[in-house]
Specification:
Radius of gyration: 34 Å
Largest sheet: 2 strands, antiparallel
CATH architecture of the largest domain: Orthogonal Bundle
Strand content: 5-15%
Helix content: 40-55%
Shape: elongated
CATH class of the largest domain: Mainly Alpha
Distance between the termini: 55 Å
Mean pLDDT: 89
Strand order of the largest sheet: 1-2
CATH superfamily of the largest domain: Cytochrome c-like domain
Number of strands: 4
Number of domains: 2
Structural class: mainly alpha
Order of helices and strands: HEEHHHHHHEHHHEH
CATH topology of the largest domain: Cytochrome Bc1 Complex, Chain D, domain 2
């Protein structure tokens, strides 16, 4: 409300609201409270008669029901005095959504902060052997991460599988904590869309890349694609195609594909590019929760078990 650039919008909200409440008071008083007869008297005939004897009677509301209308209107007035609801009026209590959020977060931090922070002194690799710590991390994962990585952390197209040992930016405890805290922004150039490669070059490069992972490809296209790869792609993915974790460039020699390894999908990736973003959770979660969350993620690919 405070962001209005014109006072017109304040009055546009406040005036109809106040007039609406006053109008409701008038309606209740005029049609119920201002009658000259009591609840025990018969109501006034409305002049609508059917079959000679059946007619419509305007009976007064029961007093308890009428009082409920008054109580509702009085509650609305008190609410608008105490809380924001009339344009830029902040209310006598000064309540704001941001203030309530900060108060709740502070209370939660005071309650649960020590519970999470006690694990900060234990390294992630060691903490991954503690079933209780891993279970706490799993609950955090279920709250914040399953929307992208899936309930089993198996990932989906465009979202990495966290259960294997293939890491775009590194799978050490420190790198996992860094990724969760600061987030990641991946970018694959659109080689064909930007006019950097022809469609034929893109197809040949795709065949070469797929061949690196053991897929059956056209030998002639692969041979042509090797030169395209070395000239344009090796700077990120390396001359051997094994990737570069410092840049987030994936290893192309295994059979793990973030966006799919079919000829169609690889051509799409090269021609149109890819852009993947991992949000930064540091400010929202804090060090204690991130430490446990990293513990769970680390345990998925390092703890032996079924």
């Amino acid at each position: 409300m405070a962001d209005f650039t014109s006072s017109f919008w304040n009055w546009f909200i406040a005036v109809p609201t106040i007039l609406g409440i006053l109008g409701c008071f008038w309606l209740v008083i005029h049609y119920s409270g201002a009658r000259t007869y009591g609840e025990s008297k018969e109501g006034e005939p409305m002049g609508h008669v059917w079959d000679g004897d059946l007619q419509e009677i305007n009976n007064p509301l029961p007093r308890w029901w009428l009082n409920m209308f008054y109580a509702t209107l009085i509650f609305g007035i008190i609410y608008l005095i105490l809380y924001p609801g009339l344009g830029s009026w902040k209310g006598l209590l000064g309540w704001t959504e941001a203030g309530q959020y900060e108060a709740e977060m502070k209370q939660a931090e005071e309650t649960y902060g020590p519970l999470f922070d006690k694990y900060l002194k234990v390294p992630v690799a060691e903490l991954a052997k503690d079933p209780k710590a891993v279970e706490m991390g799993r609950h955090l994962f279920a709250t914040y991460c399953v929307g992208c990585h899936g309930s089993d952390a198996g990932g989906a197209r465009g979202y990495p599988n966290l259960r294997d040992n293939d890491w775009l930016y590194g799978g050490t405890p420190e790198k996992i904590v860094e990724t969760i805290t600061n987030g990641r922004q991946g970018a694959m150039p659109a080689w064909e869309d930007q006019g950097l490669l022809t469609h034929e070059q893109v197809v040949n490069a795709a065949e070469y890349v797929r061949g690196l992972s053991g897929a059956e490809v056209d030998p002639q296209a692969r041979a042509k694609g090797e030169e395209v790869f070395k000239t344009n792609c090796a700077v990120c993915h390396g001359p051997d195609g094994k990737g570069n974790q410092a840049l987030g460039a994936p290893n192309l020699t295994d059979d793990i594909w973030l966006y799919g390894g079919s000829q169609k999908r690889v051509i799409e990736s090269i021609a149109h590019g890819r852009s993947g973003r991992m949000p930064a959770w540091g400010e929202l979660l804090g060090k204690g929760k991130i430490h446990l969350l990293a513990t769970y993620v680390y345990s998925l690919s390092h703890n032996k078990g079924p």
